[in-house]
Amino acid sequence: MSKNIKTNLYTAFVLLIAFLTPVLVIPNINNPFFNSKGLLLFALAIGTLFAYILNSFKEKKWLLSANPLVLPLVLFGGSILLSALITHQYPYDQLVGWGGFFLSFVLIVIFAPTLIKQDFSQKLIKVLNLAGLIIALNSVLQLFGFGFSQIFNQLSVFDFANDLSFSLTGGVLLNIQLLSSLILVNLLSKKHKEGWSQKIIIAALVLGLGINVYAILPGQKTSPVLMPLSASIAIARESLAVTRSALFGYGPDSYGQAFNLLKPAWLNTSNVWQYSFESATVFPLTLIVSGGLLACLSWIFLTTRTIRTLTVKKEQKAAGLKYFIIAAIIWQIISPLNTMMLTLLAIALSFYLAANLDSYKIKKFSFNNLFDPFNLQPENKANRYTFATISVLLMAGLIFLTYQIGLHYAAHAAAYQASKAASEEKFNEVFAKQEQSRNLASRSADWRRIYASSALELAVALSNKTDITPVEQEQVIELINVAITEAKAATILQPRSYQNWLTLANIYLQLLDVTEDARQLAFESLSQAALTNPNDPFMRINLGQFMMRLEQWEQASNFFIQAIERKPDLPVAYYNLAQAYIKNQQILEAENALQQALLLIDQETNLEDYNTVKTLLESISEEADQLRAQAEAQQAQQAQQAQQGQQTPQEELTTPAAPAKQVEPDITNQQTGLEPATATESGLSDLLNEEETSNLLRESSLVPEEETIDNQ
């Protein structure tokens, strides 16, 4: 009797997760939609492992269903784990991101069926229908501007629009995936064809689906932004060029970094050129890049084995669930993957396998039969104690894993508190909360980078004080040291992330006027950012602006030209090129660059930028006219001399010594919303000592990687 109670308790837990996954959004956490769904998936995996270990401890053996999916699941999970460990020296971010999600999916489907044991498929369908009705209701309410977004905004610092862009699932496309799958189940399931309640459910789901399909139509502001399929294919093809990345990918949670590294230059001519995508257009292409061919082939093996298991001709229980599973797999193939559908697919597979548990053999593993498979020796106390010890150790390991995942999401909660403090202009609290996030998840590159930026901002703010105290001066030096250490740690943890290198470069740029040692370090960091995002024109603009600060006008021009080569219709690149030409006394070239920038700026939407460029163009037009007149006169003189058969020395063109007055526009921010890695105004140069700062930079470069990472 107690066994059934425990089974029902676990089943109730899984049903609760199934209901919450589509509808739960935690308001007081950073990135609430993604992290809420991810937290539930981890909770389900951890709960499954806890229940399995407790059940095994009671039974004194490990029970495992020998269903057809075990082998492909093990292969898929193993390939994901290999990808995380081989591609990253510090795989923390991989294992708490998509790598952890995939491993959780594998563990749930392997171990949950022997815990559920019975056919609860109808209960699962009812729970999913209830969640689907809530999603459909919210879609109707959001259509008229008074949905759940108003409640969510009241409970958090976020300000989501009261329209169809707000969805409890995390997106309009996710609504479509869930609702269409549920409609398919309700229409094709034999046990749900009769009754008015069932017709009402189907009608409500269809209504919700129709609203969300309307929301993604071209021209709608809620239409999802997806990478062009041709770009996804090109990136996948490039990832196969190197053997290591072809086999193991770039890491299960590193598609975004691979995208920046491998995206084709022609993507800059599309209307999504400024986006950094975290997944391909369809999941298989994402998996090729992030997990490699091993992961992709094992996923294909798992998918085909699953479909074969579902479509076998003999009579099976939980027939209604197979339609949901097939629909979820189809959505995997034709769209980007998401944590909500991954979690629901794991649950649906677990319930389906549990309902048909009697069709598969149950493998029983104990310490005794591992070493005595033919039961030639009687079971003894030593074996029982050894089994108990192993179970306790597994439980201890699981508790440690739970603790680590808890720290990860606690860091996201602290980051939310930092955002809240920023909205209330409590800047000291912002720094404290970001430091807390960093301490909670010190192996995460994101928190180290954010903390470094925060330390730098606080150091600059203190240095700009007119009445700075000696204590605050010491704080500035310490904050600069913290910023350098944390930014370097971020580049070690995630060396392919261009954001990490830009953050480090920005710190060195702030120190250019303090010590010459910062020059080379800043250039190296900016160069690394460009190498990890080679076709982003703003990486070249950053390098060009750095050269402008060093008054190396020709080198600056070269970098701006490289930016133009990557995106020929980018006004800010032409404007910066014109600035470099003016400084280098190349007035005619500057005029051409400004004219091109003027043609590319939309006067109606960017009038301020248009007038800024126009003003600068007018300021050099007189000088340009003089140079053209000189050139024409010289050409005429040369022609006359040629007619007379005389050769006279060629005179050099003369230009005024003082360049034209420059006006600094904010074209970059207004055109793209991206900021180049240039330093802001600060009092660091007046405050910091050159020798001490040089020593600080040298000492930080000598610190071993492990000490940098483990610095607390």
- For this structure, the quaternary state is single chain
Q: Number of DSSP helices?
A: 32
Strand order of the largest sheet: 1-2
Task: Give a quick account of the main beta sheet: strands, pairing sense, barrel closure.
Answer: 2 strands, antiparallel
Q: State the total count of DSSP E strands.
A: 2
How far apart lie the N and C ends? 51 Å
Beta-strand percent range: under 5%
Structural class: mainly alpha
Mean pLDDT: 87
The helical percent reads 55-70%
Apparent shape: globular
Low-confidence stretches are: 1-6, 370-377, 646-678
Report the C-alpha radius of gyration, rounded. Answer: 31 Å
Summarize the structure in words.
- This protein has helices spanning 2-23, 32-59, 70-87, 92-95, 98-111, 113-116, 121-143, 149-155, 172-188, 196-215, 229-239, 243-248, 255-262, 283-310, 319-334, 339-355, 367-371, 381-423, 427-440, 445-463, 470-493, 498-510, 517-532, 537-549, 553-566, 571-583, 587-600, 607-644, 667-672, 684-687, 690-702, 705-710, and strands at residues 62-65, 362-365.
- The chain is mostly helical and 712 residues long.
- It has a domain at 2-365.
- It has a two-stranded antiparallel ribbon with strand order 1-2.
- Helix 15 packs antiparallel against helix 16 (339-355) and helix 26 (571-583) packs antiparallel against helix 27.
- The protein is globular, with a radius of gyration of 31 Å.
Keywords:
712 residues, mainly alpha, two-stranded antiparallel sheet, disordered N terminus
In short:
The chain has 712 residues and is mostly helical. The chain is built from 32 helices and two strands.
